[in-house]
Design a protein that fits this description.
Elements (H helix, E strand, L loop, with lengths): L5 H13 L6 H40 L1
Length: 65
């Protein structure tokens, strides 16, 4: 692998960073809101699955005893 001197490396880093497209305030707000909504949906889903599994286990364990 070819080694790049520090000056060329800095130029390449600067060129790559200039290609980055940063989100605007609206995109950031929308994405943040979607993360919160999806987190709430996932939490609700896992809560319901947990309750279903608990109910099933209690049925099995109470009927066996």
């Amino acid at each position: 692998m070819a080694r790049t001197n520090p000056f060329q490396f800095a130029q390449q880093v600067r060129a790559e960073v200039s290609k980055v497209v940063w989100p605007n305030r609206r995109e950031t707000t929308l994405t943040t809101a979607m993360v919160f909504v999806m987190s709430a949906v996932a939490a609700l889903f896992f809560f319901l699955v947990d309750m279903l599994i608990r109910f099933g286990l209690e049925l099995i364990l109470n009927s066996a005893g």
